[in-house]
Amino acid sequence: MRDYNHSILEGVHLTIGQTPMVRLSRLTRGLAGDIYAKLEYFNPGFSKKDRIALKIVEIAEQDGSLLPGQTVVELTSGNTGTGLAIVCAVKGYKFVAVMSRGNSVERARMMKALGAEVVLVDQAPSSVPGQVSGEDIALVEQETERIVLERGAFRAHQFQHPGSLLAHEEHTAEEIWSQTGGEFDVFLDFAGSGGTFAGCAKRLRELNPAIRCYLVEPAGAPKLAGGSVTNPNHRLQGGGYNMELPLVDRSLITGFLTVDDEEAMEAARRLAREEGIFAGFSSGANAAAALKLLREREKGARIVMSVNDSGLKYLSTDLYE
Protein backbone atom coordinates (compact mmCIF):
# COMPACT_ATOMS: atom_id res chain seq x y z
CA MET A 1 0.00 0.00 0.00
CA ARG A 2 1.13 3.53 -0.64
CA ASP A 3 2.14 5.53 2.40
CA TYR A 4 0.75 9.00 1.77
CA ASN A 5 1.98 10.21 5.16
CA HIS A 6 5.57 10.23 3.94
CA SER A 7 5.25 11.64 0.42
CA ILE A 8 4.00 14.70 -1.40
CA LEU A 9 2.35 13.76 -4.69
CA GLU A 10 2.42 15.88 -7.84
CA GLY A 11 -1.30 15.57 -8.55
CA VAL A 12 -4.45 13.92 -7.25
CA HIS A 13 -4.39 11.44 -10.16
CA LEU A 14 -1.46 9.75 -8.41
CA THR A 15 -3.79 8.73 -5.56
CA ILE A 16 -5.85 6.52 -7.89
CA GLY A 17 -5.73 2.84 -6.96
CA GLN A 18 -4.44 0.92 -3.93
CA THR A 19 -7.94 0.92 -2.45
CA PRO A 20 -8.62 -1.02 0.78
CA MET A 21 -10.44 -4.34 1.11
CA VAL A 22 -12.72 -5.35 4.00
CA ARG A 23 -14.43 -8.56 5.07
CA LEU A 24 -18.24 -8.21 5.15
CA SER A 25 -18.53 -10.20 8.37
CA ARG A 26 -21.82 -8.62 9.44
CA LEU A 27 -23.60 -9.08 6.12
CA THR A 28 -22.61 -12.76 6.00
CA ARG A 29 -23.52 -13.58 9.61
CA GLY A 30 -25.02 -17.08 9.72
CA LEU A 31 -23.67 -18.07 6.30
CA ALA A 32 -20.74 -20.35 5.52
CA GLY A 33 -18.06 -18.48 3.59
CA ASP A 34 -16.77 -14.93 3.30
CA ILE A 35 -17.25 -11.85 1.13
CA TYR A 36 -14.28 -9.53 0.64
CA ALA A 37 -15.22 -6.07 -0.64
CA LYS A 38 -12.75 -3.80 -2.43
CA LEU A 39 -13.73 -0.22 -1.58
CA GLU A 40 -13.33 1.61 -4.87
CA TYR A 41 -15.01 4.77 -3.59
CA PHE A 42 -11.67 5.54 -1.91
CA ASN A 43 -10.51 6.78 -5.33
CA PRO A 44 -10.59 10.61 -5.70
CA GLY A 45 -13.66 10.52 -7.98
CA PHE A 46 -15.37 8.09 -5.60
CA SER A 47 -15.52 5.18 -8.07
CA LYS A 48 -13.49 2.44 -9.74
CA LYS A 49 -13.77 4.29 -13.06
CA ASP A 50 -10.97 6.65 -12.02
CA ARG A 51 -8.63 3.76 -12.78
CA ILE A 52 -9.65 3.42 -16.43
CA ALA A 53 -9.79 7.19 -16.94
CA LEU A 54 -6.14 7.49 -16.00
CA LYS A 55 -5.07 4.44 -17.99
CA ILE A 56 -6.92 5.45 -21.16
CA VAL A 57 -5.45 8.95 -21.10
CA GLU A 58 -1.92 7.67 -20.38
CA ILE A 59 -2.07 5.17 -23.25
CA ALA A 60 -3.48 7.83 -25.60
CA GLU A 61 -0.67 10.23 -24.68
CA GLN A 62 1.92 7.52 -25.27
CA ASP A 63 0.59 6.36 -28.66
CA GLY A 64 -0.12 9.88 -29.94
CA SER A 65 -3.89 9.51 -30.28
CA LEU A 66 -4.31 12.32 -27.71
CA LEU A 67 -2.36 15.46 -28.53
CA PRO A 68 -1.56 18.47 -26.32
CA GLY A 69 -4.50 20.87 -26.29
CA GLN A 70 -6.92 18.34 -27.77
CA THR A 71 -10.39 17.90 -26.25
CA VAL A 72 -11.38 14.58 -24.66
CA VAL A 73 -14.98 13.40 -25.12
CA GLU A 74 -16.79 10.40 -23.68
CA LEU A 75 -20.20 8.85 -23.23
CA THR A 76 -20.74 8.24 -19.52
CA SER A 77 -23.30 7.38 -16.87
CA GLY A 78 -21.23 9.66 -14.66
CA ASN A 79 -18.44 7.67 -13.05
CA THR A 80 -16.07 7.38 -16.03
CA GLY A 81 -16.86 11.00 -16.77
CA THR A 82 -15.92 12.03 -13.25
CA GLY A 83 -12.64 10.12 -13.51
CA LEU A 84 -11.88 11.73 -16.85
CA ALA A 85 -12.78 15.17 -15.50
CA ILE A 86 -10.22 14.70 -12.71
CA VAL A 87 -7.47 13.36 -14.97
CA CYS A 88 -8.07 16.01 -17.63
CA ALA A 89 -8.12 18.79 -15.04
CA VAL A 90 -4.71 17.74 -13.71
CA LYS A 91 -3.21 17.14 -17.15
CA GLY A 92 -4.65 20.25 -18.80
CA TYR A 93 -7.15 18.84 -21.31
CA LYS A 94 -10.66 20.12 -21.93
CA PHE A 95 -13.20 17.37 -21.22
CA VAL A 96 -16.76 16.98 -22.50
CA ALA A 97 -19.00 14.43 -20.79
CA VAL A 98 -22.08 13.25 -22.68
CA MET A 99 -24.72 11.56 -20.54
CA SER A 100 -28.42 10.71 -20.40
CA ARG A 101 -30.76 12.87 -18.36
CA GLY A 102 -31.86 9.62 -16.75
CA ASN A 103 -28.68 9.43 -14.66
CA SER A 104 -28.54 10.97 -11.18
CA VAL A 105 -27.95 14.72 -11.12
CA GLU A 106 -25.14 14.50 -8.55
CA ARG A 107 -22.77 13.08 -11.14
CA ALA A 108 -23.40 15.86 -13.66
CA ARG A 109 -22.91 18.48 -10.95
CA MET A 110 -19.67 16.86 -9.79
CA MET A 111 -18.26 16.77 -13.33
CA LYS A 112 -19.14 20.43 -13.84
CA ALA A 113 -17.46 21.32 -10.56
CA LEU A 114 -14.34 19.54 -11.84
CA GLY A 115 -14.28 21.74 -14.94
CA ALA A 116 -16.01 19.44 -17.43
CA GLU A 117 -18.55 20.51 -20.00
CA VAL A 118 -21.58 18.28 -19.49
CA VAL A 119 -23.97 17.61 -22.37
CA LEU A 120 -27.25 16.05 -21.21
CA VAL A 121 -29.22 14.01 -23.76
CA ASP A 122 -32.99 13.64 -23.44
CA GLN A 123 -34.25 10.12 -22.77
CA ALA A 124 -36.15 8.11 -25.38
CA PRO A 125 -39.95 8.60 -25.31
CA SER A 126 -40.47 5.05 -24.01
CA SER A 127 -37.97 5.39 -21.17
CA VAL A 128 -38.84 5.95 -17.52
CA PRO A 129 -37.30 9.09 -15.99
CA GLY A 130 -34.33 8.12 -13.84
CA GLN A 131 -34.02 4.66 -15.43
CA VAL A 132 -31.53 4.60 -18.32
CA SER A 133 -32.30 2.07 -21.07
CA GLY A 134 -30.24 0.75 -23.96
CA GLU A 135 -32.25 3.02 -26.23
CA ASP A 136 -31.19 6.00 -24.11
CA ILE A 137 -27.54 4.95 -24.40
CA ALA A 138 -27.91 4.72 -28.19
CA LEU A 139 -29.07 8.36 -28.24
CA VAL A 140 -26.12 9.39 -26.06
CA GLU A 141 -23.76 7.50 -28.40
CA GLN A 142 -25.08 9.44 -31.42
CA GLU A 143 -24.53 12.77 -29.68
CA THR A 144 -21.07 11.72 -28.49
CA GLU A 145 -19.94 10.83 -32.01
CA ARG A 146 -21.35 14.10 -33.35
CA ILE A 147 -19.35 16.12 -30.80
CA VAL A 148 -16.16 14.13 -31.46
CA LEU A 149 -16.37 14.87 -35.20
CA GLU A 150 -17.37 18.49 -34.68
CA ARG A 151 -14.46 19.25 -32.35
CA GLY A 152 -11.81 16.90 -33.69
CA ALA A 153 -11.68 15.39 -30.24
CA PHE A 154 -10.17 12.26 -28.73
CA ARG A 155 -12.88 9.72 -27.86
CA ALA A 156 -12.09 7.76 -24.70
CA HIS A 157 -14.30 4.82 -25.81
CA GLN A 158 -14.55 3.12 -22.43
CA PHE A 159 -16.50 0.15 -23.87
CA GLN A 160 -13.72 -0.62 -26.37
CA HIS A 161 -10.43 0.99 -25.33
CA PRO A 162 -7.84 -1.54 -24.08
CA GLY A 163 -7.10 0.79 -21.16
CA SER A 164 -10.46 -0.19 -19.67
CA LEU A 165 -9.19 -3.76 -19.35
CA LEU A 166 -5.51 -3.07 -18.65
CA ALA A 167 -6.23 -0.77 -15.70
CA HIS A 168 -7.80 -3.70 -13.88
CA GLU A 169 -5.52 -6.43 -15.23
CA GLU A 170 -2.35 -4.59 -14.24
CA HIS A 171 -3.54 -2.96 -11.02
CA THR A 172 -6.90 -3.95 -9.50
CA ALA A 173 -6.33 -7.69 -9.92
CA GLU A 174 -2.79 -7.46 -8.56
CA GLU A 175 -4.06 -5.53 -5.54
CA ILE A 176 -6.77 -8.17 -4.92
CA TRP A 177 -4.18 -10.94 -5.11
CA SER A 178 -1.84 -9.15 -2.72
CA GLN A 179 -4.54 -8.18 -0.22
CA THR A 180 -5.99 -11.69 -0.03
CA GLY A 181 -2.68 -13.50 -0.32
CA GLY A 182 -4.34 -15.35 -3.18
CA GLU A 183 -6.61 -17.06 -0.63
CA PHE A 184 -10.04 -16.76 -2.26
CA ASP A 185 -12.24 -18.81 -4.57
CA VAL A 186 -14.60 -16.51 -6.48
CA PHE A 187 -14.53 -13.13 -8.20
CA LEU A 188 -17.70 -11.42 -9.38
CA ASP A 189 -18.72 -8.06 -10.81
CA PHE A 190 -21.74 -6.25 -12.23
CA ALA A 191 -21.54 -5.82 -16.00
CA GLY A 192 -21.04 -2.13 -16.79
CA SER A 193 -18.52 -1.58 -19.58
CA GLY A 194 -17.09 -5.00 -18.71
CA GLY A 195 -13.57 -3.70 -18.10
CA THR A 196 -13.33 -4.63 -14.42
CA PHE A 197 -14.56 -8.16 -15.00
CA ALA A 198 -12.44 -8.61 -18.13
CA GLY A 199 -9.19 -7.35 -16.62
CA CYS A 200 -9.56 -8.92 -13.20
CA ALA A 201 -10.80 -12.29 -14.47
CA LYS A 202 -7.97 -12.49 -16.98
CA ARG A 203 -5.20 -11.81 -14.49
CA LEU A 204 -6.70 -13.70 -11.55
CA ARG A 205 -7.22 -16.81 -13.65
CA GLU A 206 -3.60 -16.57 -14.78
CA LEU A 207 -2.54 -16.49 -11.15
CA ASN A 208 -4.90 -19.33 -10.19
CA PRO A 209 -6.91 -21.11 -12.91
CA ALA A 210 -9.23 -22.55 -10.25
CA ILE A 211 -10.72 -19.13 -9.42
CA ARG A 212 -14.36 -18.96 -10.53
CA CYS A 213 -15.56 -15.72 -12.16
CA TYR A 214 -19.21 -14.69 -12.29
CA LEU A 215 -20.75 -11.84 -14.29
CA VAL A 216 -23.73 -10.04 -12.70
CA GLU A 217 -26.63 -8.60 -14.75
CA PRO A 218 -30.03 -7.03 -14.00
CA ALA A 219 -32.76 -9.67 -13.74
CA GLY A 220 -34.81 -7.95 -16.44
CA ALA A 221 -31.91 -7.54 -18.87
CA PRO A 222 -29.71 -10.69 -18.93
CA LYS A 223 -28.40 -9.88 -22.41
CA LEU A 224 -24.93 -11.38 -21.94
CA ALA A 225 -26.35 -14.59 -20.50
CA GLY A 226 -28.49 -14.98 -23.62
CA GLY A 227 -31.79 -14.34 -21.83
CA SER A 228 -34.69 -12.23 -23.00
CA VAL A 229 -34.78 -8.56 -22.02
CA THR A 230 -38.06 -7.99 -20.19
CA ASN A 231 -37.18 -4.80 -18.33
CA PRO A 232 -34.84 -2.44 -20.22
CA ASN A 233 -35.82 0.30 -17.75
CA HIS A 234 -34.28 -1.32 -14.68
CA ARG A 235 -32.95 0.82 -11.84
CA LEU A 236 -29.33 -0.37 -11.81
CA GLN A 237 -27.48 2.69 -13.12
CA GLY A 238 -24.13 2.14 -14.80
CA GLY A 239 -24.80 -1.12 -16.63
CA GLY A 240 -27.23 -3.66 -17.99
CA TYR A 241 -27.79 -1.65 -21.16
CA ASN A 242 -28.79 -4.58 -23.40
CA MET A 243 -25.57 -4.39 -25.42
CA GLU A 244 -22.60 -6.63 -26.16
CA LEU A 245 -19.39 -5.90 -24.26
CA PRO A 246 -16.42 -6.43 -26.59
CA LEU A 247 -13.86 -6.35 -23.76
CA VAL A 248 -15.31 -9.44 -22.06
CA ASP A 249 -13.71 -12.79 -22.88
CA ARG A 250 -16.58 -15.26 -22.48
CA SER A 251 -14.17 -18.13 -21.88
CA LEU A 252 -13.38 -16.58 -18.49
CA ILE A 253 -17.03 -16.59 -17.33
CA THR A 254 -17.83 -19.41 -14.91
CA GLY A 255 -21.48 -18.41 -14.77
CA PHE A 256 -24.00 -15.59 -14.87
CA LEU A 257 -25.97 -14.15 -11.95
CA THR A 258 -29.04 -11.92 -12.07
CA VAL A 259 -30.23 -9.44 -9.46
CA ASP A 260 -33.47 -7.46 -9.56
CA ASP A 261 -33.87 -3.82 -8.55
CA GLU A 262 -35.27 -4.59 -5.11
CA GLU A 263 -32.53 -7.10 -4.26
CA ALA A 264 -29.79 -4.67 -5.27
CA MET A 265 -31.32 -1.74 -3.39
CA GLU A 266 -31.89 -3.76 -0.21
CA ALA A 267 -28.32 -5.10 -0.32
CA ALA A 268 -26.96 -1.54 -0.77
CA ARG A 269 -29.01 -0.38 2.22
CA ARG A 270 -27.74 -3.34 4.27
CA LEU A 271 -24.15 -2.46 3.33
CA ALA A 272 -24.77 1.01 4.76
CA ARG A 273 -26.69 -0.03 7.88
CA GLU A 274 -24.68 -3.10 8.85
CA GLU A 275 -21.19 -2.51 7.45
CA GLY A 276 -20.99 1.29 7.33
CA ILE A 277 -20.28 1.08 3.60
CA PHE A 278 -22.19 3.80 1.71
CA ALA A 279 -22.44 2.63 -1.90
CA GLY A 280 -24.55 2.76 -5.06
CA PHE A 281 -26.85 0.49 -7.05
CA SER A 282 -24.23 -1.67 -8.77
CA SER A 283 -22.41 -2.29 -5.49
CA GLY A 284 -25.72 -3.44 -4.04
CA ALA A 285 -26.10 -5.76 -7.04
CA ASN A 286 -22.64 -7.22 -6.36
CA ALA A 287 -23.42 -7.76 -2.68
CA ALA A 288 -26.80 -9.35 -3.45
CA ALA A 289 -25.18 -11.66 -6.02
CA ALA A 290 -22.42 -12.66 -3.58
CA LEU A 291 -24.99 -13.50 -0.90
CA LYS A 292 -26.93 -15.60 -3.40
CA LEU A 293 -23.79 -17.55 -4.21
CA LEU A 294 -23.07 -18.25 -0.54
CA ARG A 295 -26.63 -19.47 -0.03
CA GLU A 296 -26.69 -21.63 -3.15
CA ARG A 297 -23.94 -22.86 -5.50
CA GLU A 298 -20.89 -21.49 -3.65
CA LYS A 299 -21.58 -22.38 0.00
CA GLY A 300 -18.45 -21.90 2.07
CA ALA A 301 -16.59 -19.99 -0.65
CA ARG A 302 -14.46 -16.87 -0.24
CA ILE A 303 -15.82 -14.28 -2.66
CA VAL A 304 -14.18 -11.06 -3.84
CA MET A 305 -16.42 -8.22 -5.08
CA SER A 306 -16.02 -4.54 -5.84
CA VAL A 307 -17.82 -1.69 -4.11
CA ASN A 308 -17.95 0.33 -7.30
CA ASP A 309 -18.89 3.82 -6.19
CA SER A 310 -20.24 6.01 -3.40
CA GLY A 311 -23.84 6.37 -2.29
CA LEU A 312 -23.25 10.14 -2.31
CA LYS A 313 -23.84 9.94 -6.07
CA TYR A 314 -27.42 8.72 -5.57
CA LEU A 315 -28.89 11.04 -2.94
CA SER A 316 -31.38 12.43 -5.49
CA THR A 317 -32.75 8.91 -6.09
CA ASP A 318 -34.88 6.80 -3.76
CA LEU A 319 -31.99 4.43 -2.99
CA TYR A 320 -31.51 6.28 0.32
CA GLU A 321 -34.73 8.12 1.02
The radius of gyration is 18 Å
Mean pLDDT: 95
CATH topology of the largest domain: Rossmann fold
Shape: globular
| Total individual domains | 2
> Which percent band covers the strand fraction?
15-25%
Q: Number of helical segments? A: 8
Task: Give a count of the beta strands, DSSP E runs of length 2 or more.
Answer: 10
Summarize the structure.
The chain has 321 residues and is α/β, with parallel strands linked by helices.
Describe the structure.
By secondary structure, the protein is of the alpha/beta class. The protein has 2 domains: 197 residues, Rossmann fold, CATH 3.40.50.1100; 107 residues, Rossmann fold, CATH 3.40.50. The protein contains 8 helices and 10 strands. It has a 6-stranded mixed sheet with strand order 1-2-10-7-8-9. Strands 5-4-3-6 form a 4-stranded parallel sheet, with helices on both faces.
